Amino acid sequence: MNTPFNKFLYSGFLTLGLYQALFIQDYLQAAASLGIGLAFDPFDSEQKWNSRPTWQKAVLVIHLALVATMFGFGFVMIGK
């Protein structure tokens, strides 16, 4: 897939997920949107993981941690 198009989709799903988490407070939907955003790698998708710069790895790992956090918040809110 074309990298500039991936960046557009990635930023769109990231924005949607943050909107759902911060304003609507629907954390499970936010986790789903953020998780879909991870499918659209904003960096060079042809580059192997081991050869990526550390900052790119950090961005993707932090994004994944944010998805897990949203799932956790969502399940805690369901329990209340």
Structure overview:
The chain has 80 residues and is an all-alpha fold. The chain is 76% helix and 0% strand. The protein is built from three helices and no strands. The longest helix is centred in the C-terminal third of the chain and has 26 residues. The protein is elongated and about 45 Å long. The model has no long low-confidence stretch (mean pLDDT 92).
Please estimate the helix content. over 70%
Helical segment count:
3
Biggest sheet layout: none
Mean model confidence by pLDDT = 92
> Which regions are unreliable across 5 or more consecutive residues at pLDDT < 50?
none
DSSP summary, beta strand count: 0
Based on helices, strands and strand pairing, what is the structural class?
Answer: mainly alpha
What proportion strand? Answer: under 5%
Q: CA-to-CA gap between the ends?
A: 42 Å
Query: Nearest-angstrom radius of gyration?
Result: 14 Å
Give a brief rundown of this model.
This protein is mainly alpha-helical. 76% of the residues lie in helices and 0% in strands.
